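ok so i was messing around last nite and threw this chain in just to see what happens. nothing serious, just curious
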Amino acid sequence: MTTDTTPSSTLSSTPSGTPDTVLRGSGPALLLAHGAGGGIAGNYGLVLDDLARDHTVIGPHYPGSGTTPPSAVPLELDGLADLLVATATGAGHERFTVIGESLGSAVAVRVATRHPERVSALVLTVGFATADPLLATAAELMVALDRAGDRHAMARFAVAGCLTDAQLARLTSEEFDALTTAAEAGMPPGTAAQFALAARVDVRAELAGVAVPVLAFVATADRLVLPASQRALAAGIPGARLVELPGAAHVLGEPDRAAWLGHVRDFLAQTEAR
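result:
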């Protein structure tokens, strides 16, 4: 069920049915929740093979990502949480660790509070409990550019937001244009709808009710979700373990993702031994 092809434009009225899903490996289940405007390969491609060595990796694509059809109605957090859980149970896994990235962190929190019997642990990366002014403005801009049909400007903004100040300073204009071209080519049709959901998210009241082990990562040079918002997400969850990735961007590069993987593997070894 793995695909990285251009998503279909067919509309679905609700995020129901079986989404386009990356399914690899065997062993304890890891349910992946990707970010807005992203996908499983884009968020987790650097670590999928490693995680699948001794785990079953289940990565559903939200409506409008992968080849999951876009939704004809606004996305809702409950709908995405239920869709992810149904995908995991449909693959034969009744309990799992949820790994969420950016918007996927809020999805993961909702899975844990809406389906507590299913969740054994959470890993939250560059996440937020509610949109800070920076993210809310970014989401508003992405939606407006989508309505204007300017996917190129959407891609330029996404590239700029997902790199650090230092990374941007090192890029030539030609290199930035090349990254923009690649981002535009890979931008899923559900990007605006997913960013619109990110702007509406508010799981702050649920954080105290998360009753499983939590590992949370902060990218300290993030230009899309403020590091303070990422820290606030972790601070609201009793007992959450916080790991800071110094100088990391919103989209983790290879060195930061390697560090992330080491921490995640240690965390999984501890939680799965309980």
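not much to say yet. Residues 254-272 form the longest helix (19 residues).
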